[in-house]
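sanity check this record:
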Amino acid sequence: MQFNATVHFASPKKAATYINTLLKKNLDQFLFFISKKLRNRNYKTKMMNHQLFLYSTFSMTILFICWSWTTASELEQIINNNDNTNKSKIKVDVYYETLCPDSIQFLLRQLVPNYDRIKDKADLRLYPFGKAQFFESGNSYEFYCQHGPKECRGNMIHCCVLHQNSYDVSLPFIKCMEKELYGLRRPDVDFVAQKCANWTNIDWKHVDDCTTTNLGKQLLVDAGRKTKAVKPKITFIPTIILDEKYSERIQDQALYGDFVKLIENHYNKKNEHETK
């Protein structure tokens, strides 16, 4: 017996009623089938009839139990899917730099390893800019980054990758790049980025073309404007903000605590508040 997990119910009670109706219908059909078979066959002895009846009853009971277990599991899944459809994700904004040791630690230890566990609850947005500065220069822009020109290059590469790909595709690349760059005194950002693009099946030429055109510069400027618009002003990188409200407690828990629990608690609290 199969159920369509895309069916939505107004309440768990209605879902249970629907499942019970299907179960009763199939059970009635099974009983009718068994009784018909018993009536239509001529058996030599009453003992054989009795044994067959016991065997059929036992089989029917086992089947009924299996149906019940499957139904309960699928019912729970249907109800959960229905509930999640109506819930609001929380906004998770991460402001970071590609060569910042603290940023790398957060990305490698907290965000990337746990992304699959939070992506259904979090609307993630990454801004690779940090404490950099940008200035208009004619029809273009110039950038100055906390850890030098190579960080500006790395930030722009991340901007282009994030612009061109989903987070499911971008984060493995970011993880690879940050892991390779961590601790290097003289990092070759382009070499590492190209290697990681090959490892994660990202078109490096497409990314590189983005970074060498006005598109890459504009994406980095946009990340910079988002970073500078945060209130209160960002003083530490990385900074993690939930639902556009900075909290020192949330910042500390995101960096050093249970990141998944933080997201889940905030998500549940937000949706409990919205349903009241």
